[in-house]
Amino acid sequence: MIKKTTLYNLHQKNGAKLVEFAGYEMPIQYKDGIIQEHKFTRSNCGIFDVSHMGQLFIYGDENLTNDLENIFPLDLKKLNINQSKYSFLMNDNAGIHDDLIITKVTGGYLIILNAACKENDFRIIKEKLNDKYDLQLSDKHSLIAIQGPEAKNILEKNINGVDKLKFMNGGNFKFQNSDAYVTRSGYTGEDGFEVSIGNNYAESFVEEMLKIGAKLAGLGARDTLRLEAGLCLYGNDIGMNTTPIEANLKWAISKNRIDTEYPGSKIIKNQIKSGVDKIRVGIKPENRVIARGNTKIFNNEKKEIGKITSGTFGPSVEHSIAMGYVENKYAILNTKLFLEVRGKKIPANVCNLPFYKKNYVKGEINV
Amino acid sequence: MSDVKYSKEHEWLKLDGDIATIGITKHATEMLGDIVFAELPEKGSSVEKDGTAGVVESTKAASDVYTPISGEVVDANQSIVDDPSKINADPEGDAWFFKLKIKDKNELDTLMNKEEYDKFAKESAQ
């Protein structure tokens, strides 16, 4: 059965166009449309319901950190309380079950998982932890992303103290009488926050922010925003057939974990040492043609050298943009490529990521 | 607007002598969302009824544009290629797609009038 988030009625009331996504009925856009929602998030403040995503709470004693280090390629011992890291759940081949954000909280960890992967992730993590800890994949909390340059002002008016948070850090706060766990993070390339709040308060929390100038934005804008920011979408840009090194996400593997063990560690170590056959790059078509996922990539001698994994029109950069995997030797800035769209070979160039320059707050940029 | 005809693929057609101006309907643009790319048939090319005669892409997906009748392309609207957002702004006016010198007037009989199309669009949206 198709699931609904707590904010379903609010979406309907605001003219959402609803689509099925990862088993949930979710807003792809509201009345203003994807481009306006995208631009408003870049210039002001967009609110995204991401309650379909998994919120996995794991509570345990001092052994929990060690046991989680056997699962994730992170130096969790060095992680401060309320600090977040981007990471992966991998198999032994370094294929990616999911990408996630893990935050150390009082008494344990909070892991934010992709909606389509969360049940499977839960099973894998529970099994790897040998049922030793209390794991809760909560459906009692909504997750709301507040993104854009005005996000801090709008959220601060409702949740006192959040404007002091540094990027990739969180804390316990209050919205009215409700507990809220807030992290300064997001998926848009803008400054912003993600708020985990009890379902009972979710709708009034969002309504309060809409009253003071924020606007709802749907999954469509979320996708164009993250692609401009060069961020990967699980299932498109990363998955079981790509490793974090191939995905050009080596920065997310903690340096002092490269020589230690975790699922996929042998392959990761080898790929760091010897290089990879294919690697993710940014790609800009030379005209407005959009190269979507699975578009074939050719070199200038008509040899197929890779595939596009995501492509769209970037409303802020006002250009067609894409990401994809190419043979390693073509992963050089400004290399000319050809993308096969509807039988035609569209000229394109390898380019730097992100397409859109980030406006994260000062503090820890290098996650 | 009584001389405007509509197809089941959500194109409209306006006839002036033996020249037909063709575009996509407002209903189609509402289904597609923000249009960010348009490709049109080349001037001088021939198109066959119900065949592909262009492409529009929204931020969400690509869709073929079909021609509701056969003919020779005598004009294509470059302004919507340069600025595809015009299609959302005025789909049944300034943002026409192409003009055909029509081949067989009888083909027009297969198309719907406004009332029939509105009913069809309403039903197909459900």
Oligomerization status of the protein chains = heterodimer
What CATH calls the topology of chain B is OB fold (Dihydrolipoamide Acetyltransferase, E2P)
Say which CATH homologous superfamily of the largest domain in chain A is assigned.
Answer: Probable tRNA modification gtpase trme, domain 1
CATH architecture of the largest domain in chain A: 2-Layer Sandwich
Average pLDDT over all residues of chain B: 94
Summing up helix and strand content along with how strands pair, one would put the structural category of chain B as alpha+beta
Put simply, the count of helices of chain A is 8
Keywords for this entry:
heterodimer; A: 367 residues; alpha+beta; Gyrase A, domain 2; Alpha-Beta Plaits; Elongation Factor Tu (Ef-tu), domain 3; 3 domains; 6-stranded mixed beta sheet; 6-stranded antiparallel barrel; 8 helices; 19 strands; 33% strand; disordered C terminus; B: 126 residues; OB fold (Dihydrolipoamide Acetyltransferase, E2P); 6-stranded antiparallel beta sheet; 3-stranded antiparallel beta sheet; 4 helices; 36% strand; globular
Verbal overview:
The complex is a heterodimer of chains A (367) and B (126). In chain A, α2 crosses α7. Chain A contains eight helices and 19 strands. Chain A has helices spanning 8-13, 34-43, 63-69, 118-128, 151-156, 199-211, 219-228, 265-274; strands at residues 17-21, 24-29, 46-49, 54-59, 84-90, 96-105, 108-113, 134-137, 141-147, 170-175, 178-183, 192-198, 215-216, 278-285, 296-298, 304-314, 319-327, 336-341, 344-351. Residues 363-367 of chain A have low confidence and may be disordered. In chain A, the strands form four sheets. A six-stranded mixed β-sheet of chain A has the order 10-11-12-9-3-13. Chain A has a six-stranded antiparallel barrel with strand order 14-17-16-15-18-19. A five-stranded antiparallel β-sheet of chain A has the order 5-6-7-4-8, with helices on one face. Chain B has one domain (4-124): RNA polymerase II/Efflux pump adaptor protein, barrel-sandwich hybrid domain (OB fold (Dihydrolipoamide Acetyltransferase, E2P)). In chain B, 22% of the residues lie in helices and 36% in strands. In chain B, the strands form two sheets. In chain B, strands 1-2-3-9-8-5 form a six-stranded antiparallel β-sheet. Chain B has a three-stranded antiparallel β-sheet with strand order 4-6-7. The two termini of chain B are 26 Å apart. Chain A binds chain B through residues 17, 28-29, 33-35, 220, 223-224, 288-290, 292, 312-313, 315, 320, 342, and chain B through 33-34, 36-37, 39, 55, 57-60, 62, 81, 84-85, 88.
